[in-house]
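Example for reference:
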Amino acid sequence: MTISYLPQAAFLFIMLFARIGTIIMLLPGFGDANVPPRIRLMIGLVFSFVMFPLAEGYYGPSPAGLGGLFPLLGGEVIIGLLIGGIARLMMSALQIAGTAMSFQMGLSYAQSFDPTQGVQSAILGSFLSVIAITLIMVTDMHHMFLVAIKDSYTLFKPGNLPALGDFSQLALNTVAGSFKVGVQITAPFLVFGLIFYLGIGILSRLMPQVQIFFVAMPANIFLGLTLMLLLLSALMMWFLGYLKAAFAVFLL
């Protein structure tokens, strides 16, 4: 190796970091809003350094000028946005489930900051998101994300952008799948809310002089939290199974 290799090495590292850094900034757990930007930057740089000898063969010689550099750089960023954005869309299933649960339990006005989305959301949605990130790290599912970064260089060759139609279809399927899983997670609470409010409505007709909804609100919250306590582990395992199956499209 001579000093003439340094421009090529710098080109390769910039290309690697453009894709890997973009993915890291969006991945669940790694790119959450409560993770300091310096930590995310450090993870991206370290993983780019690790990937350097593995992905070196996928890139050709460095272009002669900036006119050839910027299209390659933009393509790497777009691929990173695709992979990281799909992973972020999958996490939205918990926001759908948490919001629906909050409506059924009378906690829809209880808002908190969701570190996975970076916005205010229903408190149960934030709770489910934090539990999901914890389980992803504990069960080593974050290794699947890192393997997907390595496999992306085989699935999406540098310099070749993914087809727009395929990207649109994948994003559409991910949104539909996240909504479906969110509703499935919420299904027990939808049934509970239907039965509970039907019973309360009948009781209010039988005793119109009693402020029945004011009396029943604490019972609604208590029963809803009890139901969540009983079903939480099964619901989160259901979500992890969906996440593993849906993200498998990026694995070889």
Residues 3-250 form one domain. The helical segments are 6-26, 37-55, 66-105, 123-138, 142-155, 164-206, 212-247.
